[in-house]
Specification:
The structure holds two protein chains of two kinds.
Chain A: E1 6-7, H1 12-15, E2 27-30, E3 36-38, E4 43-46, E5 50-53, E6 60-66, E7 71-74, E8 78-82
Antiparallel strand pairs in A: 1-4, 2-3, 2-8, 4-5, 5-6, 6-7
Chain B: E1 13-22, E2 27-33, E3 45-51, E4 57-63, E5 72-78, H1 86-92, E6 98-105, E7 119-124, H2 128-140, E8 147-153, H3 162-168, E9 173-179, H4 196-202, E10 211-217, H5 218-230, E11 238-243
Parallel strand pairs in B: 7-8, 7-10, 8-9, 10-11
Antiparallel strand pairs in B: 1-2, 1-6, 2-5, 3-4, 3-6
The chains are: A mainly beta, B alpha/beta.
Chain lengths: 85, 248
C-alpha cells in the first residue's frame, strides 16, 4: 500500500472542467479485469500528472496531464465510462 | 469555447476571505463568501488555486467543513511545515483577501438526511472536516439519525472542533475520541490507533447496516476500511476519502 495514493475524489475538480456532470459517482470499468466501480473509489497517484489505477487489479485505467492551457487525457486502460445524465 | 462558461462545467471563481480562526495549534478554519456559489452537499470538496506574482500556480483539494449555507463556506486547513500551500493559507490569509476556488465537487462521499442511517463516521485528524459538514447538516436539519463519530487525533489539544463536538454530542450523536500520541492526565478513553476491536466496540455492527464514511490519510483509511470489512460490513456501504501529501 502506497502512502502517496489518493482516490478518484482527488481528480473530481479537474474532470469537472471537462465533463458537465458529477464525476465521482460515474462508473469506470477496468479494461484489464472488467471490474466496475465509482470514479471516487479508483486509486489515484499524483506526480507530474495523474494516474488512475483499478483498485482490484492495479491496471492503469487513465492518465491525465494538464498545464495552464491544455489537458491531455488517456483512457486507454478503461473499457467503459458510464455517466448518469 | 475559450473564455466562455458552459453550464454544468466548473470554472475557477473568486472567493472572499471573511474569517480566519485557529482550531488547534496546527489547524486553522478559513471562512469564505463565494459570490454566485452554487451551493454544496455535505461531504463535498473543492480545489483551491494560488497564483504567485510570477504566475506560478499551485492547486490543492480541501473538504468543505461547513453545512450548506448560501454562499458561505468554511475550510479547515492543517499547516504542513514544508508545504507549498498550507502555510500561506494558515499564516498569511486575512479577512478581505481573495483566492480562487473551483467547486463544489464530488457526489460519492456525500451524506444528506434522506439517506438515513445509522451512520458510522471514522476520521483521522483533519479527515474530520467533511464528516463535520455531515454532522453540522444533521444538526441543522434536526435529524436524529443514530450517528457515531470515531475521531483519531494525536493529543487532546489536536482535536479539531473539540468544543463544538462536545456541544453536539447527544440526540443520537455519540462522539468517541482516540488519542494516539499523548493523553491528558486521567484520560480513560482510547489511546491507540483505530483497530478492529475499537471499531467493533464503537459500532454500529454490521447487522445494523450502517452507512460508513471514512476520511483521513491513506494508511488510516485503508486500515479502517479493511478492519470494517473484516468485521462483516458490506464493502459497498463503506465510502472512503483519502488525502495524501497533496494536502500540503
Amino acid at each position: 500500500m502506497d502512502e502517496l495514493m489518493l482516490d478518484g475524489n482527488a481528480v473530481a475538480g479537474m474532470l469537472s472542467e471537462v465533463f458537465a456532470v458529477e464525476m465521482t459517482t460515474a462508473t469506470m470499468t477496468c479494461g484489464n479485469c472488467g471490474t466496475s466501480g465509482a470514479v471516487g473509489a479508483m486509486h489515484v497517484f499524483r506526480g507530474a500528472g495523474i494516474v488512475m489505477r483499478c483498485p482490484n487489479c492495479d491496471n492503469v485505467m487513465a492518465k491525465i496531464v494538464e498545464d495552464g492551457t491544455r489537458m491531455w487525457m488517456n483512457f486507454g486502460g478503461t473499457q467503459a465510462l458510464e455517466i448518469t445524465r | 469555447m475559450e473564455g466562455t462558461t458552459v453550464l454544468g462545467r466548473l470554472t475557477w471563481q473568486p472567493a472572499d476571505v471573511t474569517g480566519v480562526v485557529a482550531e488547534t495549534p496546527r489547524a486553522t478554519t478559513i471562512a469564505f463568501d463565494v459570490p454566485g456559489w452554487a451551493g454544496h452537499r455535505a461531504g463535498q470538496h473543492l480545489d483551491v488555486r494560488l497564483t504567485a506574482d510570477d504566475g506560478y500556480q499551485a492547486e490543492r483539494s480541501y473538504s468543505i467543513a461547513s453545512a450548506p449555507d448560501g454562499m458561505h463556506i468554511e475550510l479547515t486547513v492543517v499547516r504542513i511545515a514544508d508545504g507549498e500551500v498550507s502555510p500561506y493559507l494558515t499564516d498569511d490569509l486575512q479577512p478581505g483577501d481573495q483566492i480562487e476556488l473551483r467547486g463544489p465537487v464530488g457526489g460519492y462521499f456525500v451524506w444528506e438526511p434522506p439517506l438515513g442511517g445509522p451512520l458510522l463516521l471514522v476520521a483521522g485528524g483533519s479527515g474530520v472536516a467533511p464528516l463535520m459538514a455531515m454532522i453540522r447538516l444533521r444538526a441543522a436539519a434536526g435529524s436524529d439519525v443514530q450517528t457515531r463519530l470515531l475521531l483519531s487525533s494525536r493529543g487532546w489539544d489536536d482535536i479539531i472542533y473539540r468544543d463544538e463536538l462536545e456541544r453536539l454530542n447527544g440526540n443520537g450523536l455519540t462522539v468517541v475520541h482516540t488519542l494516539t500520541m499523548s493523553q491528558p492526565p486521567g484520560w480513560a478513553g482510547y489511546a491507540r490507533r483505530v483497530d478492529a476491536e475499537m471499531l467493533a466496540e464503537v459500532g454500529p455492527g454490521p447487522a445494523e447496516r450502517p452507512l460508513v464514511y471514512i476520511c483521513g490519510p491513506t494508511p488510516f483509511v485503508e486500515a479502517a476500511a479493511q478492519a470494517l470489512v473484516g468485521l462483516g460490513h458490506q464493502p459497498e456501504a463503506i465510502k472512503t476519502e483519502r488525502f495524501g501529501p497533496t494536502g500540503s
